[in-house]
Each structure stands twice: as structure tokens, then as C-alpha cells.
Write a structure and sequence with these properties.
The complex is a heterodimer of chains A (306) and B (311). Chain A is mainly α and 306 residues long. Chain A has helices at residues 2-12, 14-36, 50-53, 60-67, 70-102, 106-117, 124-135, 141-148, 163-188, 192-200, 205-230, 237-244, 251-254, 257-266, 271-299. Chain A folds into 2 domains: 2-28 and 35-53, no CATH class; 66-303, MetI-like (MetI-like fold, Orthogonal Bundle). Helix content of chain B is 76%, strand content 0%. The longest helix of chain B has 52 residues, at 2-53. The chains are: A mainly alpha (306), B mainly alpha (311).
């Protein structure tokens, strides 16, 4: 009976199921089968055996990953960078959105918004070219300026301590336009009656911003931040790879889980180690996103992911 | 008595108004200064690249890159356009990948979204979760990489630049929520007339979804145009290098750049202006986006706003 119901449903939705088939196949091939491939983390990989035929080696890959100290370093870097990105990017984007809405004329707003959105459209490779233009030791613009005013050149690509600042700036630069448009949309959605009421009560613009605009943005801010926190263990590979590349001198302050996994796979060819680090990241990421979603759910059910 | 009170209140209001005006002015000044500063910081890197690409190589070696060209020269561009073989090839790959990937990806995104928003489809939530779960958990880079290289055997084939990015769960969700906003009555009457699900999708839903298709199509096209990651992982054949990856390679090493110019027809002994050439290549690789940008920017803003409202 139940079985008949199932096949009946299949027959009834034959066309719809066929329309869904390509996407289902896509996610099976590129997401679900690879998920089963996490067994590699517990194996000594060889090409003859492949994912499922290689011999098991227990927790050796993980032991190697954790004992080398790399696990702690890349986890710390990934989390700290993402925390810095979340704070700096959101503060800048909110400030820009409020000022775009409250302080400047329409024509100026359109123009500057267009300009600020530009970095979002270029690839990380081009950002890498910009970094090269700015920071190259011999011909970089920064050193052109420093030598022109009689100061010492600085060797950015050999100095790990500069990079946290550079990467935070680059991230803010690229995300500013996108984020401020989002916040601007949220501000535009605020009920104008509240502003009128504040006006009648004699509030000045700053009071209005701090007592009406920002509190009204709290839901948007909390949700965006929580969702970003859910991804705190996922590094932006494109950014780190194009800014730093395989420059080992900088790894202590720039290596994130994603770049470590990539290098273990492609450069040093340690497939087991790479799979173990990737598995570790997946579990960590899964746990944090569940937690973040739980937090969003508690705060506002409608905005939870699931 | 009452007259004094009125006087006092008007004086107060006037004073308040004056104070308010000062605040307003302060905010306006702050706004223009702060926003101008941000906008300038956003545009300067692009000006630097343009200026550097137009500076004489000898001057760059002597003084480094500058915001304004100290000695104007179009040598880098002349060389690029005189021996364009490699660059043209990379352009061809990128244009083909972007065109095919965007069309196929957009069609599949819309088709999937259409089924998932059909309220009479009993399993829509189960399938939605099947797709959505992939954003929460993944097997990581290694199994995905081995799947593509060892099992699907896609290494060094053009399709490897298209296939892995074909579908994105986020776009399916946005598309789905857009389509579920289209009144059911429209498709209902077609169904009564005996139109099949696929025909309803093609003839009714696709035309009605034009705004969402335009926005999502642009996001997909931008992702394909800017992609270098799949090439980094899966392409070693120089004929299959897309533009961004080609640029990445050229920025990485001057020897590679020299070799590329030579294989494009330049003479080995030629003095190649590597620094300005790197910058000129960056401009040529980004050019179409910079040119199309003013016209398409609007759609991105719209798309983001749809996404923001929907959450």
C-alpha cells in the first residue's frame, strides 16, 4: 500500500522529477559522493587503491596534523582573521550606509556607491596584481612614496607582522560596497513615521541615528553577524592565496586551514594529511554553523537557515 | 504672563533649531568627508594600475610605480596587441566558458527552483534539504578533487572549467523565492488547458522570471569570468588557460611572461617591459568588466536587495 503510494507519487510527478534530475545528479557527484570520501582522512592514500581501496591507518593523519603544531596555527589564524573581518567590515559598512542615507545628496550617493562597489567585481587575481603594485620591494608604489620622502624601503613580502593589517584592509576594501548596499536597503526599510516622531520630539540627527536608525538595524546586524560567525572556520582561499601565495616566510601569520589543505594536496602531495585537515575543518564548520543557526533561531525564527 | 511663556518657548525652539542646524551641518560635513575618503580608497588602486601600465619601463625600474605616469608610454600595450596569441587564446577560453556556463547554469537553476516551489509537489521539502545540506557540510577539498581528477577524469578538459561551478544552492534558493511570488492563478489556467509541467516552466515561468534571471545570470557570469581556482587545480595545458589564471601565471613569474610573449611571436632577444606589461595585462583582463560595470551594477544592487529582504 505504502509502496504503491510511493510509486504512484513518482508516476504523478514524472516530469517534475525529471526536471530535478540534473541538479540531483550534480550534487550527488560533486557533494555527496565526495562526502563519503572523508574516509580518506583515516587512510594511507595510494593512487592504485583510490579513495575506497587504500589501506586504513587509523588516526595517523590526524596525529601528524596535530603534533606538527600546524593544526593549532591554522585554526587560530582562520578564526582570528574571520573575527577581525566580521568586526571591521560590519562597522565600516554600517557607518558608510548610515552616512550615505543621512548625510549626502542623491547624486553624490549614486556616484560613490558605484565607486565603492567596484572592488567587489574584480577577481582575487587582480587584487593580487594590485597588492604587487603597492607592496613590491623594488618597484611598489608604497616604496616609491617612502623613498621619495626619504624614508627606508619596507620589505612587506618578508615581514609576517604587517599581514594581519594588510589582509583586514583588503577584505574591508573588497566587501565595502556589497555590505553597505545591504545595510542601506535595511535602513531604507525603516518606517519613516519614527523619524517624523523623533523630529517632533526635538531629537537632533545624531540622536536620531543612535536611537532610531542603529537600533532598527539590530536585527539585520545580528543575523548577518551570526551567519558570518557560522563560517568562522572557513577561510577565503582566493584572498589568502592571491595575496600571499606559497610564500612560506609569511605562513606563521597568514596560513589558514584552506591554504594549508590546498598546499598539502598539491605541493607536498600529502593526501592523507590534507584529507584529515579538510575533515577537521568540515566538522568544526558544521558544528559552528549549527550553533550559529541555533542562535539565530532563538533570536528570530524567520531568519534561521533551517 | 502667558506672553512671556510663549516668548520663552519660541526662543527655546529657535535656539533648538539653531543647534539642530549645526548638528545637521556637522553630519553633512562628516558624511561627505568620510564617504569621499572611502570612495577614493576604492578607486585609487585601479588608477595606480592604469598609470603603471602607461609608464615607461625604465622609469618604473628607476622610481617604482607612481600614481601619475612620469614618462608616458604605450609600449606595454603595443607589445600586447602586436603579439596577442596567448592573450587571445585565454580570452577565447574565458568567453566560451562564461557563455556556456552562464546559460546552462541559469537554465538548470531556474528549472530546479521551479520544481522546488511547486506547492503540489509532495517531496519539495525533502529535495530542498538535499540541496541545502551541501552548504552545511562537505567532504572537503581532497575527495572533491579526487572525484574530478580520478573518477570523472576531467583534468585538462574545457568542461572542468564549467561543470564544478554549474549550480549554486544560494541562487536556487533566491530563484525559488522569486518564483513563489508569482501568482499561482497564472499557471493554474495553463494547467487546465492541458499544458505539461515542462511547458509551463518554459513558456510561462521563464518569461515571468526575467528580473531574477537577469540578476542571477549576472552573478553566475561574473563568477565564471573571474574564476581562476578551477584552472589552478585542474588545468596544466596552456591552451585551456582562462584569462584570470593566465594573468595569475604571468604575475607570478617574469620568465613565464617572457616565454608567453615569445610563443606569441615576439623575438627572444627583445627587451620586454615586464613591470608595465604585468599592469597592462591586468587592465586588459579586467577591461570588459570595468566597461560593462556602470551598466550592470544596477542589477547587482537589485539582486542584493532582493536577497537582503528575503534573508
Amino acid at each position: 500500500m505504502n509502496r504503491q503510494g510511493f510509486w504512484g507519487e513518482v508516476r504523478k510527478n514524472k516530469v517534475l522529477l525529471m526536471m530535478l534530475a540534473p541538479a540531483v545528479l550534480f550534487f550527488l557527484l560533486f557533494a555527496y559522493v565526495p562526502m563519503a570520501g572523508i574516509v580518506l582522512a583515516f587512510k594511507q592514500f595510494n593512487y592504485d587503491g583510490g579513495i575506497f581501496g587504500s589501506p586504513w591507518n587509523g588516526l595517523d593523519n590526524f596525529r601528524f596534523f596535530f603534533d606538527s603544531g600546524n593544526a593549532w596555527m591554522v585554526t587560530r589564524n582562520t578564526a582570528l582573521y574571520n573575527i577581525a573581518f566580521i568586526i571591521v567590515n560590519n562597522v565600516l559598512q554600517i557607518a558608510a550606509a548610515i552616512l550615505l542615507f543621512e548625510a549626502v545628496g542623491k547624486w553624490f550617493r549614486k556616484l560613490t556607491q558605484t565607486v565603492m562597489f567596484l572592488p567587489y567585481f574584480i577577481s582575487w587575481v587582480v587584487v593580487g596584481a594590485i597588492a604587487y603594485n603597492l607592496f613590491n620591494y623594488d618597484v611598489g608604489t608604497l616604496n616609491s612614496i617612502l623613498t621619495a620622502i626619504g624614508l627606508e624601503r619596507i620589505d612587506v613580502y618578508n615581514t609576517p607582522s604587517y599581514w594581519p593589517f594588510i589582509l583586514v584592509l583588503v577584505s574591508a576594501w573588497k566587501a565595502l560596497g556589497y555590505g553597505s548596499v545591504m545595510y542601506l536597503a535595511a535602513i531604507t526599510g525603516i518606517d519613516t513615521e519614527m523619524y517624523e516622531a523623533a523630529e517632533i520630539d526635538g531629537a537632533n540627527v545624531f540622536q536620531r541615528i543612535f536611537h532610531i536608525t542603529i537600533p532598527n538595524l539590530y536585527p539585520t546586524i545580528i543575523i548577518l553577524v551570526l551567519l558570518a560567525v557560522g563560517n568562522i572556520f572557513r577561510g577565503d582561499f582566493g584572498m589568502f592565496y592571491n595575496m600571499v601565495g606559497n610564500n612560506g616566510l609569511l605562513f606563521s601569520s597568514t596560513d589558514v586551514i584552506d591554504t594549508f589543505v590546498f598546499r598539502s594536496l598539491t605541493t607536498s602531495n600529502e593526501i592523507g594529511l590534507s584529507a584529515a585537515a579538510g575533515f577537521y575543518q568540515s566538522i568544526l564548520g558544521f558544528a559552528t554553523i549549527l550553533l550559529a543557526n541555533y542562535a539565530v533561531r532563538k533570536y528570530d525564527k524567520d531568519h534561521a537557515l533551517f | 504672563m502667558s506672553a512671556t511663556i510663549t516668548n520663552e518657548t519660541t526662543a527655546l525652539t529657535r535656539k533648538g533649531a539653531g543647534k539642530k542646524q549645526v548638528d545637521r551641518l556637522l553630519l553633512t560635513v562628516l558624511g561627505y568627508v568620510f564617504i569621499s575618503l572611502l570612495a577614493v580608497l576604492c578607486i585609487i588602486p585601479f588608477l595606480l594600475i592604469i598609470s603603471s601600465s602607461l609608464t615607461e619601463e625604465a622609469k618604473i625600474v628607476e622610481n617604482g610605480f607612481q600614481l601619475f605616469p612620469t614618462a608616458f608610454s604605450v609600449d606595454a600595450y603595443t607589445l600586447l596587441f602586436k603579439y596577442p596569441a596567448q592573450m587571445v587564446k585565454a580570452y577565447g577560453v574565458t568567453v566560451a566558458v562564461t557563455a556556456v556556463g552562464t546559460l546552462a547554469g541559469l537554465f538548470l537553476t531556474a528549472m530546479t527552483a521551479y520544481v522546488l516551489q511547486r506547492k503540489d509537489f509532495k517531496w519539495r521539502n525533502k529535495f530542498s534539504f538535499f540541496f541545502f545540506f551541501t552548504t552545511l557540510f562537505s567532504g572537503g577539498l581532497v575527495p572533491w578533487y579526487l572525484m574530478i581528477v580520478n573518477y570523472l577524469d576531467l583534468k585538462d578538459r574545457l568542461i572542468v572549467l564549467i561543470l564544478p561551478m554549474l549550480l549554486n544552492v544560494f541562487y536556487i534558493i533566491v530563484m525559488k523565492s522569486f518564483m513563489s511570488g508569482i501568482p499561482e492563478a497564472i499557471t493554474e489556467s495553463a494547467k487546465i488547458d492541458g499544458a505539461g509541467d515542462f511547458r509551463i516552466f518554459i513558456q510561462l515561468m521563464l518569461p515571468l522570471s526575467k528580473p531574477a534571471l537577469a540578476t542571477i545570470g549576472l552573478f553566475i557570469a561574473l563568477a565564471y569570468w573571474n574564476d581562476w581556482y578551477n584552472a589552478l587545480l585542474f588545468v596544466s595545458n596552456e591552451n585551456l588557460m582562462p584569462l584570470q589564471y593566465y594573468l595569475y601565471k604571468m604575475l607570478g613569474n617574469m620568465d613565464g611572461m617572457r616565454r608567453a610573449m615569445v610563443s606569441s611571436g615576439a623575438v627572444v632577444t627583445m627587451n620586454i617591459p615586464t613591470e608595465s606589461l604585468k599592469m597592462a595585462m591586468t587592465i586588459v583582463a579586467t577591461g570588459p568588466i570595468l566597461l560593462a560595470y556602470p551598466f550592470i551594477q544596477r542589477y547587482f544592487v537589485q539582486g542584493l536587495t532582493i536577497g537582503a529582504v528575503k534573508g
